[in-house]
Every structure is written in structure tokens, then in C-alpha cells.
């Protein structure tokens, strides 16, 4: 089996397992997240499968490449590519999500509304290292800011969302205020991974 086929098999296996997961009867979100964490953990344990097309940084902006979008919009799998020092605004997702670190590292700071209805940092920043997993959702904490932990190299994380994140209307927030604005992120490329090319199944 050639290297390209092996790489596609790794991603295809994760997509198959995620498809089976979302097809199961409804269950508590905590159970779904735990199962999704296991699948994502397997995906990011080894860094030999991500195609170069979905690992390219931009000199000014972090990149959000669609790896797979479920035809029924039940989930999407995305590679986030962080150039040196790049960061997101403070934002939410409105759906559950699981983040797996593939290369480098990223820093995450959660935010929450205080008693004056102003958005402030919640807890200390955390650093996600390769192979580690983090989760977000409206039920456990959905508003955060994420940054490349390095000023001199690229970092890449793989994000799983409970919907087509590039089409979902969500929010950017302004810390210290109650202000926000709506946005739809889209994706950084019109390409998506052709998982079934060369597949043996």
C-alpha cells in the first residue's frame, strides 16, 4: 500500500467512525463528546496523514480548511493552520466541538459573562500539545480565543464540530463589553479532501 493510500485510510477511518456515531440514537451530549474524543484522539496520535494542501499557513491569517463535511450537516472536520503568532478573535460556535492538536501547540483562553453582563476571561489560559484533546459546547463553555503558542513556527489542530461550521451563524465578542457581531466563517479553500480516492473499501 502506498503512503498516500495509508494517509487517506487514516482520515477515512475517522470519518466512518464519526458517521456511525452521529447515526446512533440520541444520547446525552456528555456521552457523545466522550465517544468523539476517543475518535479524535486516535486521529491525532500520529502526524503522517494530513495532505500538504490542507496544512498551508497564510502569512497574515489563520486558515480553516474543510477536510470533510457530512452531507446532512451533522458534523464537519476541519484543519486549522496557524502561522507564527496568529490568533482568533473571541468567538463562539453554537454547536459542540472537539479539538485535537496535531502539530505545534495552541493556547486557549475561555471567556464568560460576569455579573455586569460583560465578557471577561474565565480561568487561566491552557496550552494544547500534540495528541491532546479539548472540547467546547454551549453547555460546557463555548466562548474562547485561540492562538498559536509559537511566534516562530506553524501549528495545526484538527477540529470536529456538530454541524457544518463554515455555514453556521455565530458570534465574535469584544472582551470587557456586552457587544458582539454575527459572522459566518466559510472556509479558506474551495477544496475538500477526496477521502474515497484510492480507498480499498
Distance between the termini: 13 Å
Give the SSE string. HHEEEEEEEEEEE
Report the uncertain regions.
none
- What is the beta-strand fraction? 25-35%
Main sheet record: 5 strands, antiparallel
Strand tally is: 11
With helices defined by DSSP (H or I, 4 residues minimum), what is the helix count?
2
Mean pLDDT: 92
> Which structural class is indicated by helix and strand composition?
alpha+beta
How would the global form be characterised? globular
Structural overview:
The protein is of the alpha+beta class. Helix content is 18%, strand content 32%. The protein has a five-stranded antiparallel beta sheet, covered by helices on one side. Strands 3-10-11 form a three-stranded antiparallel beta sheet, with no helix packed on it. Helix 1 packs antiparallel against helix 2. The two termini are 13 Å apart. The mean pLDDT is 92.
The gist of it:
The chain is of the alpha+beta class. The protein is built from 2 helices and 11 strands.
State the main characteristics.
single chain, 201 residues, alpha+beta, 5-stranded antiparallel β-sheet, 3-stranded antiparallel β-sheet, 32% strand, globular
Amino acid at each position: 500500500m502506498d503512503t498516500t493510500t495509508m494517509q487517506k485510510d487514516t482520515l477515512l477511518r475517522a470519518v466512518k467512525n464519526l458517521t456511525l456515531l452521529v447515526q446512533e440514537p440520541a444520547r446525552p451530549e456528555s456521552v457523545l463528546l466522550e465517544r468523539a474524543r476517543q475518535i479524535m484522539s486516535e486521529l491525532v496520535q500520529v502526524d503522517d496523514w494530513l495532505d500538504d494542501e490542507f496544512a498551508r499557513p497564510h502569512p497574515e491569517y489563520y486558515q480553516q480548511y474543510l477536510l470533510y463535511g457530512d452531507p446532512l450537516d451533522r458534523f464537519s472536520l476541519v484543519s486549522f493552520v496557524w502561522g507564527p503568532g496568529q490568533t482568533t478573535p473571541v468567538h463562539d460556535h453554537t454547536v459542540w466541538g472537539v479539538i485535537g492538536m496535531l502539530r505545534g501547540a495552541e493556547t486557549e483562553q475561555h471567556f464568560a459573562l460576569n455579573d455586569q453582563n460583560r465578557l471577561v476571561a474565565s480561568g487561566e489560559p491552557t496550552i494544547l500539545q500534540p495528541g491532546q484533546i479539548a472540547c467546547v459546547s454551549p453547555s460546557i463553555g463555548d466562548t474562547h480565543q485561540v492562538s498559536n503558542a509559537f511566534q516562530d513556527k506553524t501549528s495545526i489542530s484538527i477540529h470536529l464540530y456538530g454541524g457544518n461550521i463554515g455555514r453556521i451563524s455565530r458570534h465574535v465578542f469584544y472582551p470587557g463589553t456586552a457587544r458582539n457581531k454575527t459572522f459566518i466563517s466559510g472556509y479558506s479553500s474551495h477544496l475538500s479532501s477526496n477521502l474515497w480516492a484510492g480507498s480499498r473499501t
